[in-house]
Amino acid sequence: MTTRRLLGLVIAAATATSTLALVPASPAAAAGRCGDHPWCDTSLSPGKRADLLLAQMTLTEKVGMLGGDSLTSGAFSGPDQHTGVQKGIPRLDVPTIYYSDGPVGPRQGKSIGLPAPLTLAATFDPELARSHGTVAALEARAKGNDAIYAPTVNIARTPLAGRTFEGYGEDPWLTSRLGVAWIEGAQSTGLIGNVKHFAANNQEGIDLTGGVLNEYLPLGLGIIGTRYAQNSIVDDRTLREIYLPQFEAAVKEAKVGTIMCAYNRVNGKYACQNPTLLKQILRDEWGFKGYTIADYLAIHTTDGGLNNGLDFEPWPPVGYQPLLVSGAVTLGQVSRATIDQHVHVMLETWFRFGVFDRAAYRNDDAQIDKTADGLASQRIAEQSTTLLRNQDHVLPISPSVKSIVVIGKPATQFAVGGGSGEVAPFENHSLLDGLKARAGSGVAVTYDDGTDKARATAAAKAADLAIVVAKDQYGEGSDRNCLTLECPGVNGNQDALIDAVATGQPKTVVVLESGGADLTPWRSKVAALVQAWYPGAHGGPALARVLFGDVDPGGRLPITFPDSESQLPTAVSTARYPGSGVLGLDTHYDEGVFVGYRWYDEKKLAPAYPFGFGLSYTSFALSGLEVVPNGSGATVKARVTNTGDRTGYAVPQLYLGLPDQSASVQQPPAALKGFTKVQLAPGESRTVSFPLDERALSYWDTSASAWKVTKGCAAVKVGFSSRDLPLDGQLPIGGGAC
After folding, report:
1. Bridge partner list, 386
2. Dihedral, CA atoms, 169, 473, 607, 129, nearest 10 degrees?
3. Can you tell me whether residue 76 is helix, strand or coil?
4. Which end of the chain is more exposed for a tag (fewer CB within 10 A), N or C?
5. Is the pLDDT at 50 greater than 90, yes or no?
6. Is 364 helix (H, G, I), strand (E, B) or coil?
7. Residue 641, SS3?
8. Per-residue confidence at 28, pLDDT binned at 50, 70, 90?
């Protein structure tokens, strides 16, 4: 230790001692690691406790809290390597805060290997989202973390986007309901949630190698339209109605503790120093009480971040280096009051979540209940499995089937996307293992890796049933260059393999492990198509149970499967995607609110499989539509009946078609405003209810900068997908008539 450093410590200690001697002892000291300080009085509000602590901090200590303290965190993964580290202040008993990825569980050593978030979205079940969040947070806590970087709630504007697997699909209402439940589950464990990436962060950039580098780099290399500099040019109505509602719900309903700002620019300004996003909308309009966190390498200027709402830069400590921050204060670029505001919101959040009032969480995997977490993971995988085709009821697998050949390397692998959502499971329970275990001794289950089409086809012909397992590839850092299964081709030409096997064996079942939406040009040739998503490390037994009929396929599509890439709303022009200008950096969101199924409906396009679609092993019918206005909203009711001979899951969905406000403010033909999931026995009926508040009936009026209800008549539609809406009704809104 240098003489200067020693002298500094002596002076700091003397200052602290003389200052604290003037403050009376706390009458209700915290039981954790807070120490014996006035701010440890748990009878005080989090804000008052933060006031007391902040008053005792030096400027140097405050500045030191604004940036992360580990150059290796975030860059590497290991049992003792947290995603982010924010060192505490020992003299004031401010603890060190540890941060963890993420959306599929902690990326710190090994974890249970949960299903990907898009897989979770296919469950259409907020309670399973709550379970997913709870498991992910408990495991992060067991690894010594205080906060978890999840959930990702960005809308799938295009299924080409590399992080599609990390989000909840293309609809803001579905994303909001699942995101809120996930955060509530996670934060119920004591961890601080982190909703990301704020905002309009919908692409990674196109990799000129076609995605091949994803196999060899920690992150993909998306150059054209890269997320690091891309500018989302989006009108205010589209931003408010499509890309912000899920963040707003996270703040207002789930009371999320932190928000991560995105890499990209929004209407010209980088998201992590965008005053419209971070100050006007987040703080002033929504009343956010937590703190904002920069995505890694997303900060651009020190004063730009500090003056425009960015509280903390976790890694690498570049823009918020103490020297740079102190320099900005000295030069008058940033006021001391601004520094105090940033530190205060962090302290207040930690007090609100009890960080000071408990012992530090231990990093010890032995605390993880692998059995319970595995069962939770398996149940999510079962409920997400989406049956898209079932010709001649080839599924569930009949007792008459005595031989099954499983084809394709993905049948033995752990399906996961790349980047912050890439986890390593304690143990992978593959589909091949799951099928062998479930089939029992009476059924011969063999395997072919599919690398030789002729050999695989011959094996399929020789078996009673062929199951081809195929997988796509998504990852942070670069987008997919196409939606076919041979792009980028790391698993070979899987489309050709499926086509060949299905030609040779009429009873061919395709199990598709997807992180988004894939083209299915062979779908009419196969007997069944099972969308398994990225089902997690317990996906094998889950899928086996579904294939054999032990459980009904409970999944529905949270994203439209196009018939061709030309149908995508972003396929209209390169200006829409990846972007115009130098390196495609200006991305024009001029499709407006017509995203996902809204686009297909508006343009009258027939997708391969529509949003919300999914088959059951039984059948359902809807009847008895009731639309009951109440105050500024309404309640919609319908009766759903199991008309088949098996117990199964129905997912009734409510869509509204709001009246157009004007020729320039057009509404989608239908937009999801409610859904529920019910399990029904044969012949059983149940009445489902969908509450509608004033917000559900509103659009964003850009001239008034407010939500507004158009006078007129709204179409009320209830059904089983965006294209299967047998119940039709009307609702007068805004003083209008029908």
Report:
1. 531
2. -20
3. strand
4. N
5. yes
6. coil
7. strand
8. low
3-state SS assignment for residue 424: strand
Q: Are 469 and 407 in contact (CB under 8 A)?
A: yes
* Closest among 252, 546, 160 to 378, alpha carbons compared: 546
Strand order in the sheet with 97-101: 84-86, 97-101, 147-149
Q: pLDDT band for position 619 (50/70/90)? A: very high
Among 27-36, 664-673, 712-721, whose mean pLDDT is lowest? 27-36
Confidence at 25, pLDDT banded by 50, 70, 90: very low
Distance between CA atoms of residues 496 and 494, nearest Å: 5
The enclosing H or E element of 734 equals none
The shares of helix, strand and coil residues in the chain, as percent rounded to the nearest 5, are 30, 20, 45
Collapsing DSSP to helix, strand or coil, 282 comes out as: helix
Instruction: Find the Cα–Cα–Cα–Cα dihedral 670, 673, 679, 684, rounded to 10°.
Output: -70
Closest CA to 70 of 343, 316, 300, 420: 316
Name the pLDDT band for 539 (thresholds 50, 70, 90).
Answer: very high
As a whole number of angstroms, the distance between CA 485 and CA 94 comes to 51
Catalytic pick among 125, 295, 448, 586 = 295
Q: pTM to 2 decimals? A: 0.94
Tell me the pLDDT tens digit for each residue of 300-313: 999 999 999 999 99
Count how many residues are written for the chain: 738
DSSP E strand stretches across 436-507: 444-448, 465-471
Separation between Cα atoms, residue 440 and residue 445, nearest integer Å = 9
pLDDT at 8 over 60: no
- Residue pointed to by tokens 């804000």: 47
| Rounded Cα gap, residues 76 and 81, in angstroms | 7
- Based on C-alpha coordinates, what's the Rg of the chain? 27
Contact in structure between 395 and 387 (CB atoms under 8 Å): yes
Of all residues in the chain, what percent carry a pLDDT higher than 70?
Answer: 95
What secondary structure letter does DSSP report for 69?
-
Question: Annotated catalytic, 295?
Answer: yes
Interval 217-247: pLDDT, tens = 667 789 999 999 999 999 999 999 999 999 9
Q: Which among 163, 241, 120, 118 has a CA at the least distance from the CA of 598?
A: 241
